[in-house]
Amino acid sequence: MQLSEQQTMNGSVFFRLLLAVFLTLATMAITHAADDRATVFADDFEREEVGEGYAQGTYGKEAWTLVNGVLIGKQTRSDHGSVIRKNLKFDNIDLEFDFRFSGGKRFNFLLDDQHEKSVHAGHICRVSISPKRIAVTDDKTGNMNLEVRKQRKSTSLSPAEKESLDQLLASKTNAASVDLKKARWYRLGIRIDGDLLEASLDGKKIAELRSPGIDHPTKSKLGMTVTGSTIDFDNLKIFSTN
Q: How far is 124 from 144, CA to CA, in rounded Å?
């Protein structure tokens, strides 16, 4: 039996409506699942000063400022990016925040243990973000490990030792290419689950890495290191992983 042109058109309209309903319900389910996460810490930076809950190091008052409810990071020393950290005891973690490049070159979001002596400055793992690249890295058994750093600085490694070191470092990071626009807000998600470190951009997973150093059980602080001038941050949320 042949369908009339009107029947075919009606069927097409019905199919499109059905597809739209399905996509809407799927989006609502995903949003609802995300909203169901229990928030254990949140900061919208709607105040005048950063506050005592954050450690800013010796980078000057202009390194981290609050303007119109936005945390603004700016490099103030030539030898190191400006640092801000939140003290928080954790093992696994699930967090999100908004960021915007407003002239800065890059930033690292670091997850550290200030008491871990096998690594430089307590660095355990990190997510590194530039306008063209997002990378996830195991610092503890990678380039921040003191023995590895000693090898990296050595001028007497044999070609075989150099190749072995390069292979080790390559195995401790994973990266994805991106194209982040200046002055546009993005939302970064970071999740640690055991030895897995994941980074997502605007809700889409962008890079992941499994490596033993990530599973360090006693992480004690987290936060940003900004290079260049300036990068903006807002709407930090940390969710329960239980």
A: 8
